[in-house]
Amino acid sequence: METFNNWMVALNDFLWANWVLYIVLATGILFTIWSRLGQGTALTHGWKVIRGQYDDPADPGAINHFQALSAALSATVGLGNIGGVALAIALGGPGAVFWMWVVGAVGMALKMTEVTLAMLYRNTDDPDNPHGGPMWVARQGIARLNPKLGWLGSLIGGIFCITLLISTITGGNMFQAWNVGEITESYFGIPSVFTGIVLAIVVGLVIIGGIKRIGNVAGHLVPVMMALYIIGGLYVLAMNIVHIPDIFVLIFNSAFSASEASGAFIGGTAGYAFLFGMKRALFSNEAGQGSSPIAHSAAKTDEPVREGVVAGLEPFIDTIIVCTFTALVILSTGIWNRGPDATYAVLPDVVQVSDGVWTIETRRPPVLGKDQWLEGDPVYTIVAAHANKSSGNERHRISGVVHIVDGQTIIEWGTLESPVQPSLVDPGIYANYVGATLTAKAFDTAAPGLGKWLVTIAAWLFAVSTMISWSYYGEQGMVYLAGERSVLPYKIVYCALIVVATMGLLKTDAELDNLTGIGTGVMLFANIPIMLLFGGQAMRAYHNYVGRLRAGQMGPDHPKPSLDDVVSGRNLKIKKD
After folding, report:
1. 10 Å Cβ neighbour count for 327?
2. For the chain, domain boundaries
């Protein structure tokens, strides 16, 4: 496992080099300027479109605009909003939140552009079951530019589908299942693998019905789960309202300067705040990845830009609203830089394992307050050693795992490679609250038990919604690569991987970040070049659409349908006389 983790670290270092983030950010700024702040159109016209005023049953497609947005949001509003934000703050500090906002803003332009492109090139040979996404843009777009290079377009589309499947397996599936398993085991003592089995059954029952069932389930599930989570977040923020102004100051200051070490937080440079804020926001809202266009391509419309405008709402809802709620809850409660969960009366020794490799002597842990240490509990302590480029100081974590052997509780510590002999910074031991568990603990500080129930329920809902939509993304990649016959075997493997993810292969937030970072990173490498190559077509179509809209040349040509009809998709049924 250590070799695998080292491989993931090396690959992430390449995929998430600073120049990659600069390119993504610059691409978002490019389309923001090119569209003349198209974010404004999304925030005004987009809401009217999803309300059903422009839905036409005669248009090609399978689901209405609201269901398409819900299906895409169910993939983005997931544990990235709960666990991903926690990871960003735990590893990058408060400044990461600022860069999440930046990605959310420019991500609206990215999402609008990539979805418009997908709608321009989607395959509607079967009007009730359209296929779309960057793979079709590459395949058909390059063939139109030069028919002799059609093979190149097919190849690029295939490469994108391979990256899509990598991201589906990691961020869209295993990350979700792992987090739900961790938080359920942490609070209820239910072995994580049992959670995986239940999740696999639930997801399997939904995805077997295809995009129409996914759109219907997402249309009902997404509004409920978001409302539940935001109401809980508002309660916590009301309890800590006096801290909110200072939190915003801290976020802005930490975005451009190093965050000092405090308690459980070992410190973070401005560069790492930028890195983790960008990574987590891109993982959460998927802007530039090319995944959401696959869901939006199923929308029933004959106006490609109209669905692109709807898609522009995704990063706003996902990152600007939901992720911000999570960040404010974590920061205002102080859980991210809390004091030790337990303290040694006598410091354990730091011992040398081999040349340049150190660990901490195995010893019984100190008493954990009112609770008890449980088998498998992840912990860490903080040591001073060589310069740490991520924290901006000399602090490092050494992780450990609690074991109960012959009735005796001990901590088995991991190792740290350092040319300098480490020394314990303080006698404290910190429970390693990873991902969604850290967010749940933040809710618990405001009202004991709130995190246990609210975040656990939200985690289950968010994870299921994300996994059902990402299963469809991967399915469309398989259809492109291997045809319709590959769909059933793919769905079986997809559900099996849910169980695999909950079998304890990943232990720490750093390992989790590495796994999901690979999935997001490879898709950016495949999709951003496609957007830059064909983005001009999307922008011409966008300005044409907006010009006709402002000139009053298009709808709405019918009253708003009822909300119930929009959510269920009944407004798409043609009424017969």
Report:
1. 28
2. 11-46+65-337+441-552, 358-434
Place of tokens 């798409």: 572
Q: How far apart are CA 559 and CA 577, in angstroms?
A: 19
In angstroms, the CA 43 to CA 105 distance is 11
Q: What is the dihedral of CA 294, 295, 299, 302, to 10 degrees?
A: -20
pTM, entire model: 0.83
* 564, two tokens: 């119930």
Show pLDDT as tens, one digit a residue, over the chain (577 residues). Answer: 566 667 777 887 788 777 888 898 899 999 999 999 999 999 999 999 998 888 888 888 888 999 888 888 877 776 677 777 888 888 888 999 999 999 899 999 999 999 999 999 998 888 778 889 999 999 999 998 888 888 999 999 998 898 889 888 888 888 888 878 888 887 888 999 999 999 999 999 988 887 778 878 878 888 888 888 888 889 899 988 999 999 999 999 998 888 888 888 888 888 888 888 887 787 677 788 888 899 899 899 989 999 999 999 999 998 888 889 889 999 999 998 898 988 988 888 999 999 999 999 888 888 876 667 888 888 999 999 999 988 889 999 999 999 988 888 889 999 999 999 999 988 889 988 877 788 888 888 888 888 888 878 888 888 888 898 899 999 999 999 998 899 999 999 999 999 998 887 665 556 666 666 777 778 888 889 999 999 999 999 999 999 999 988 887 767 888 888 888 788 877 543 3
In sequence order, what are the beta bridge partners of 396? 383
Planar angle of CA 373, 377, 382, nearest 5 degrees: 95
Determine the topology of domain 11-46+65-337+441-552 in CATH: Amino acid/polyamine transporter I (1.20.1740)
**Cis omega (within 30 of 0) on the bond before 245?**
no
Task: Using alpha carbons, select from 407, 458, 482, 520 the residue that is nearest to residue 135.
Answer: 482
**Residue spans of alpha helices (H) in 420-508:** 436-446, 450, 456-482, 487-501
At residue 392, what are phi and psi to the nearest 5 degrees? 75, 15
Task: Judge whether 114 and 288 are in contact, CB under 8 Å.
Answer: yes
